[in-house]
């Protein structure tokens, strides 16, 4: 039924406009319905109740509105003739009348509204018994919020009670829709609006990205509209009264105390010291507005400063101040705050979680019979949200935990509910206790994390790499073990050559606990040398000749090897005074022919070889810039291969590549995974490893079945596969195993467009040199690659233990962020010659056997509900630009979606001290050319301003380190140059060109150049606006520069403002004059 044409219509309020837009984007759902019911404990006169309902709805014109989209935008019109269906539904015969009624309500709640005809407000009455009824109300958020439903409920109860007493109802007191729209119009034309805007922009400056507690979503992603889970918890009356007493003693209300509890919980779960929490408010600061049952509600961001030593009492005081300030500015819309901040280069959303405090008596009286209100839905649930009901003195606190089903399981929500209640009870008992000291976990969860998920299965055998290889050579002496260019060695030939070199080294006095350096190019001699050193019992120290000479020199001086195996041509790369073994020395070649060909025995070695003797020393970068040598025993590698056997089943039929630098511990897995399982190892020449197309041909030609790659290297191989899909279909790979750096699984979506899920099986293996190559295992699927949890690292290797701990080395719950520690059989001895650093990183394991150790990785992680792990980045180097945490992988993914882009990487550069900028590097797709500005414009259309790269640099290939990781140091600095092909057309254009050139530090700027395409960002934009305002005396805003970023467009905007303000703006005669005027103003 449509509204009468004579009835006045009204524009939508800002709050309604946001909901209207959301409904247009996602039509046909009931997600914006809000609903509840009153549980009336007494008889109800249905006729009089219906009469009270009709009178209440007649008084509430905002609830009778219907909506139409006109040419000038949507309008709302109260419908005076609307019929109000009011069914009476008898559920008294049901086994559980309340459950039956609630099931009906939930089904109705999900029904989408009819905006054009209405009604947008629905009701029903359920008879559960002669003296028990449920009155159900459901209103769309366009016409009512939760506070409006409460007003409606109280007014109807008031009218019904009067009718039952056969009295005239009290006069109508609802405010009108016209009043609501007028009040909003007055606010938006008042000084209060600008005052509120100023407050919020200042309060939210540098606001952090929202962090969700969901393990199924990216940090700043909201859930799609849809079903949500709800669970209830209750704090007993004694706890409720204790909270009220604390509030009174501190001169503050109960709501800030409850909000502080939620903030404390989020801090413990996320570790965020700069924390933002959403607070729904009525949006009705005055008495007149509090009489209007329409849609005025708002959600305000509350910002907290958290520290490890912060006590709950101090947090309560901080919260009380924050809430008081926020409520003074509650009419400024949260959606507008977000837009303001995004225009200044800020966050994608303000908060992930919110808390709603209902501090009023939940009982409504119907003719002397109590009706307790029960909420069903407050509208969309984007993430975990808490609604706390405080029914007053002598009563407990009811808490509703809501979470979208797309992000949380029922079990995950239950875990949050139980932990929150535990935290609340503890903090209320001791206000001074540091929040960080509270134990969140129940005994059952602790048991699950420390024991059930961490039962280490020790390796069944203790032996050495040399012994295992010798056994394999004995089983299949004629099988091909090694391919290096044109050279092919059988297991017998490889064993014999290694034996002869081993006997020679033993003759030089080399044995267990010694170190022998190896500086060779990728070749058969390299593998022979590594094997020979292991046979002597010594540890090999890889010196990649492609490493910088200074680094190689440091490693030699630090390790002091007993000997160095190299060639005459590479000898200068490995300077030192120790014994030199030049494999290309004719005298050595002759001497090796005379050495025994049999396997060295313990009797022939300097001393017997034990599985705990070091097998290799690999240097890794230190946080101080000083490399450190990690000492790894034979047994560590043996158990690595044994413990992962069930996952891979490597055997004689497998062909592996030695793709990575042998100075990178991924090579340990490549080399010995092949040779100790009877496979064939193909040594990839360095030049081929840097040519994805040639490497793809090698993989096909050699029939490689096991490929190990860093994600950066695989991105390049994916490009080659994309460019030559016919060749890619001839691959015989069984496994592609990722390691060495974080894998963003979303980058694999392109691979799955051409390849099946398990042909090959992609596997992500998180690992660290100090824990022997690998720690965890995750078989990647197409579903995972297209999911939202992009940094899963899977489950631990069976003989390891993994802990996620807080700063006090206590386990954190599932879903909480902590630092990852690794214990068990894979731990290295420690750092060569660095006992203090070893003690700092390899610490006592408080959860293991006496004397056991665990390694502090420095990586942030969190448990998933299935016992897997998420990798969340480094604890000590989160990427931030201008105070905003940046997800570089997200930016790269957006850039890579451009059809002309094959690969993309994004880094933070600081080419000028203090000036951090995002710079993107892209590689064109085959047959394509890339226009950097077009690619940047695509990013600007999809990302917040602070995530848009200041520059896009086009490269033929992305540089990789010797280890196959992205070589950030080799990425060139961007060069910003003018693209304009004309000179300034006026003195004003020339002046603006000069100002842009000065601020952006570029040689020249033309009229058609964009401020942002020349490297400008929001901070520089604010400086530019201030200078332009000063010099031209016009009221430019930051929005003007964003909407008119070119010199020509901005000049036209300045001229338009000049005419509007009816006063000429001075134009400096030259850029030098402009600078002088600005300097004068600054001085």
Automatic annotation (TrEMBL):
Residues 983-1058 form the Carrier domain. SUPFAM superfamilies: Acetyl-CoA synthetase-like, ACP-like, CoA-dependent acyltransferases. InterPro entries: AA_adenyl_dom, AB_hydrolase_fold, ACP-like_sf, AMP-bd_C, AMP-bd_C_sf, AMP-binding_CS, AMP-dep_synth/lig_dom, CAT-like_dom_sf. Transmembrane segments: none annotated. One of its GO terms (biological process) is amino acid activation for nonribosomal peptide biosynthetic process. It holds the Pfam family AMP-binding. Residues 1062-1083 are annotated as: Disordered. GO terms for cellular component: cytosol. SMART domains: PKS_PP (SM00823). Its cofactor is pantetheine 4'-phosphate. Keywords: Phosphopantetheine, Phosphoprotein. GO terms for molecular function: catalytic activity; phosphopantetheine binding. Residues 1073-1083 have a biased composition (Basic and acidic residues). NCBIfam families: AA-adenyl-dom (TIGR01733). PANTHER family: NONRIBOSOMAL PEPTIDE SYNTHETASE, PLIPASTATIN SYNTHASE SUBUNIT B. This is NRPS module protein. It comes from Caldimonas brevitalea.
């Amino acid at each position: 039924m449509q509204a009468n044409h004579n009835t006045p219509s009204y524009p939508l309020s800002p709050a309604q406009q946001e909901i209207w837009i959301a409904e247009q984007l996602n039509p046909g759902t009931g997600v914006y319905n809000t609903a509840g019911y009153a549980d009336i404990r007494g008889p109800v006169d249905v006729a009089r109740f219906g009469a009270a309902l009709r009178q209440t709805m007649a008084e509430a014109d905002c609830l009778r509105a219907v909506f139409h989209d006109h040419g000038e935008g949507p309008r709302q019109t109260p419908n005076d003739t609307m019929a109000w269906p009011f069914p009476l539904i008898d559920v008294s015969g049901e086994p559980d009348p309340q459950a039956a009624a609630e099931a009906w309500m939930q089904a109705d709640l999900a029904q989408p509204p009819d905006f054009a005809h209405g009604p947008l407000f629905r009701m029903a009455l359920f008879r559960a018994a002669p003296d028990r009824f449920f009155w159900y109300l459901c209103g769309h958020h366009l016409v009512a919020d939760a506070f409006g439903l409460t007003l409606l409920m109280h007014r109807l109860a008031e009218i019904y009670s009067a009718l039952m007493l056969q009295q005239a109802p009290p006069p109508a007191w609802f405010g009108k829709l016209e009043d609501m729209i007028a009040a909003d119009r007055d606010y938006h034309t008042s000084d209060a609006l600008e005052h509120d805007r100023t407050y919020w922009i200042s309060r939210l400056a540098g606001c952090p990205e929202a962090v969700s507690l969901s393990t199924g979503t990216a940090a700043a992603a909201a859930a799609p509209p849809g079903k949500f889970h709800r669970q209830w918890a209750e704090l007993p009356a004694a706890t409720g009264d204790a909270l009220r007493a604390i509030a009174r003693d501190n001169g503050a209300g109960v709501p800030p105390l409850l909000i502080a509890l939620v903030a404390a919980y989020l801090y413990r779960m996320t570790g965020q010291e700069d924390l933002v929490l959403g607070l729904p408010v009525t949006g009705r600061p005055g008495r007149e507005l509090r009489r209007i049952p329409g849609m005025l509600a708002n959600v305000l961001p509350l910002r907290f400063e958290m520290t490890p030593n912060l006590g709950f009492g101090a947090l309560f005081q901080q919260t009380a101040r924050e809430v008081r300030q926020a409520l003074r500015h509650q009419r400024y819309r949260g959606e507008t705050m977000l837009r303001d901040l995004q225009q200044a280069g800020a966050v994608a959303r303000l908060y992930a979680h919110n808390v709603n405090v209902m501090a009023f008596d939940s009982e409504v009286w119907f003719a002397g019979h109590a009706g307790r209100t029960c909420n069903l839905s407050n509208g969309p649930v984007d993430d975990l949200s808490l609604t706390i009901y405080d029914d007053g003195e002598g009563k407990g606190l009811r808490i509703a935990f809501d979470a979208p089903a797309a992000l949380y399981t029922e079990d995950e929500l239950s875990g949050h509910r139980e932990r929150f209640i535990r935290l609340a009870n503890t903090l209320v008992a001791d206000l001074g206790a540091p929040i960080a000291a509270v134990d969140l976990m129940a005994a059952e969860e602790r048991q699950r994390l420390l024991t059930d998920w961490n039962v280490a299965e020790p390796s069944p055998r203790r032996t050495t790499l040399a012994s295992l290889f010798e056994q394999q050579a004995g089983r299949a002496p004629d099988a091909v073990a090694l391919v290096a260019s044109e050279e092919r060695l059988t297991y017998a030939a490889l064993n014999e050559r290694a034996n002869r070199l081993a006997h020679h080294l033993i003759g030089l006095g080399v044995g267990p606990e010694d170190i022998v350096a190896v500086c060779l190019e990728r070749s058969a001699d390299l593998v022979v040398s590594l094997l020979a050193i292991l046979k002597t019992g010594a540890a090999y120290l890889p010196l990649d000749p492609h490493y910088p000479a200074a680094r190689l020199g440091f490693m030699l001086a630090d390790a002091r090897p007993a000997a160095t195996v190299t060639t005459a041509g590479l000898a200068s790369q490995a300077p030192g005074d120790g014994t030199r073994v030049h494999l290309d020395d004719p005298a050595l070649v002759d001497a090796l022919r005379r050495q025994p060909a049999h396997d060295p025995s313990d009797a022939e070695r300097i001393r017997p070889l034990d599985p705990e003797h070091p097998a290799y020393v690999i240097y890794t970068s230190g946080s101080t810039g000083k490399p450190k040598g990690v000492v790894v025993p034979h047994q560590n590698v043996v158990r690595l291969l044994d413990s992962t056997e069930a996952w891979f089943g490597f055997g004689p039929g497998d062909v592996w590549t030695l793709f990575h630098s042998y100075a990178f511990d991924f090579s340990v897995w490549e080399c010995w995974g092949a040779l100790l399982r009877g496979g064939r190892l193909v040594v990839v020449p360095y030049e081929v490893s840097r040519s994805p197309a040639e490497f793809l041909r090698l993989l096909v030609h050699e029939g490689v079945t096991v490929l190990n790659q860093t994600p950066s290297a695989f991105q390049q191989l994916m490009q080659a596969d994309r460019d030559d899909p016919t060749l890619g279909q001839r691959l015989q790979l069984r496994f592609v195993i990722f390691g060495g750096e974080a894998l963003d699984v979303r980058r694999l979506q392109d691979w799955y467009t051409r390849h099946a899920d398990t042909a090959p099986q992609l596997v992500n293996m998180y690992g660290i040199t100090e824990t022997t190559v690998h720690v965890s295992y995750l078989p990647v699927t197409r579903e995972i690659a297209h999911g939202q949890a992009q940094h899963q690292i899977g489950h631990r290797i069976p003989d390891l233990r993994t802990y996620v701990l807080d700063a006090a080395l206590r386990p954190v719950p599932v879903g909480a962020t902590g630092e990852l520690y690794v214990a068990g059989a894979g731990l290295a001895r420690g750092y060569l010659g660095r006992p203090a650093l070893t003690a700092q990183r390899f610490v006592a394991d408080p959860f293991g056997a006496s004397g056991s150790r665990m390694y502090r990785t420095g990586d942030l992680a969190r448990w998933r509900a299935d016992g897997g792990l998420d990798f969340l980045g480094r604890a000590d180097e989160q990427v931030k630009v201008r105070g905003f945490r940046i997800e570089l992988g997200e930016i790269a993914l957006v850039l890579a979606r451009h059809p002309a882009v094959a690969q993309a990487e994004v880094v933070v550069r600081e080419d000028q001290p203090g000036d951090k900028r995002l710079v993107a590097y892209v590689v064109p797709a085959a047959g394509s050319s890339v226009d950097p500005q077009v690619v940047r414009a695509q990013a600007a259309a999809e990302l917040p301003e602070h995530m848009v790269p200041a520059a896009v640099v086009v490269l033929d290939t992305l540089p990789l380190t010797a280890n196959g990781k992205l070589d950030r140091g080799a990425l060139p600095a961007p060069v910003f140059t003018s693209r304009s092909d004309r000179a300034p057309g006026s003195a004003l254009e020339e002046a603006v060109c000069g100002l842009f050139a000065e601020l952006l530090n570029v040689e020249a700027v033309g009229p058609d150049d964009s401020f942002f395409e020349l490297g400008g960002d929001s901070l520089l934009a604010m400086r530019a606006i201030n200078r332009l305002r000063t010099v031209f005396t016009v009221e430019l805003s930051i929005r003007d520069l964003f909407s008119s970023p070119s010199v020509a467009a901005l000049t036209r905007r300045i001229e338009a403002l000049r005419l509007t303000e009816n006063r000429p703006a001075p134009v400096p005669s030259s850029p030098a004059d402009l600078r002088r005027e600005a300097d004068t103003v600054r001085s």
